[in-house]
Amino acid sequence: MKLRSHDSTAATVAGILFVVIVAAVIRLWGVSWGLPYTYHADEPVNLTRTLDMLQRRSVDPEFYNYPPFFYYVEAGGQLAYYGVGSLSGEFSSIDDISLPESQTLANGRLGNPNSLLAGRMISVALGIGAVGIVFASILAVTSSMSGAVVGSLLLALGPLAVRQTRFMTPDALATFFVAAVLALSFLIYRRSRMLDYIGAGIAIGLAGSSKYHVAVVAVAVVVAHIMRTEARFYRDPKIYVSGAIAAGTFLATSFIIFFDLPAFWAEFAWKQGAYSGSGGGGIDSLWFYVQAIGTETGPLLLLIPFGFLLLRTRGETIVAVAFAVVYLVVIAMFVLRFERHVLPALPAIAMAVGFGVAGLYDVVRAWTSERSPVEGRFIVGTAIISLLVAASVPLSSTFSDGQRYSSDERADARAFVNTLPAGSRILVDGYSPFVEPGRFDVVPTGFVVTDTSDPALYDYVTVAELGSGRFLDDPQRYPIQSSGFDDRFASFCTVGFFAGPPWQMVLASDCPEG
Asked: What 3-state DSSP class applies to 351?
């Protein structure tokens, strides 16, 4: 069975250019967030590991929380940045690019801000690429331009997808290869060629080499293979070839871990323990991620069932939804839950929504063909308006995010701190504004609420909403942290409060009179 293609090449090119440009513009809006300061908890670590690897002239990042392949990809961005800088005379050696100066959690400063920008631009490019794959996949399966545009715009403009593909993290890399695996799974379902299985195996290996657990995207290939081959699924050698290639690709792209297996297993075991230990995960986490998807898609999620209605989209919808469900169950077992974990599932959700739009279009067309032209136009108009209203829900969050990430949310708090008496001893909370170490006696801590030092040692304390504020804002869930903080700093008073969002607060031990 041949893949469907749109009748008009010009319309196809225009459509994909449109969604790609939209994806690029919205991601570039805010891509320089915070610079030259670092406001993300993971970015300074990822940049440090990448630069350190390059400056040691090594292929071993000596850090295995993420697969080494991620650092190899980011090394390409740093080498490109170095190349441009060397041509302009800014650098004479890769060693001239300074490492991030981290003060505490999600609080640091960069000597060369464009080094982080180079890392972020890789994520932006990968995010845009995933949008292009989603568009092409929906169009190939359905021949529906409306389905391809709506589905790909869902990934192009979804608040979570946009936000997380602005950062120097492995999430965009993993999501790109998930989209590639899904596209190849659809080809397997439609035509089952060896080349499709080989490509899928490579993409699965690269997905696992981006983030370990994302290798579960292999489920999409298995489901497509079973539906294609039915009762003979276990006798068809192509699925075994694909699996072997996936394993080989992972080994080839993350080979360095096998030269230091004890260190890899120690960090991998720690990571797995932190993410899957007792006391977390389960139904609550699953609901957390379902809510995150609902926020990402709004009512557009309700279009997915229409993809099951039509024979031409039913198989691909099953493949996409099967992966999304299995993936959500896997991440729901993690104790630590972050919205970014759901990002690799979003291409599958976007594709399923696109298939649903194509199915809805066929239903509406069949319905209107039996009615008068006036009734038909009314029905079509109502459907279009409903889609626009549904899309407005996630879009409002995306544009709010854009406004946040295009401004310096800690500038006012940082300026206030710099007016404090020089030499003051300041206890700095995570996610706080950067406190100049040359001007003040800075004592960084992960979270002020869990710090056990004597409050009498400090003149000032910074508190951030995303730092200790997460405990203080929910005293019922964190009674020990909130009450302990209140007791320890009872004699302190608020001398500076900056509403944000997110809010920042400065406490003083010597309270002004009145």
From this structure: helix
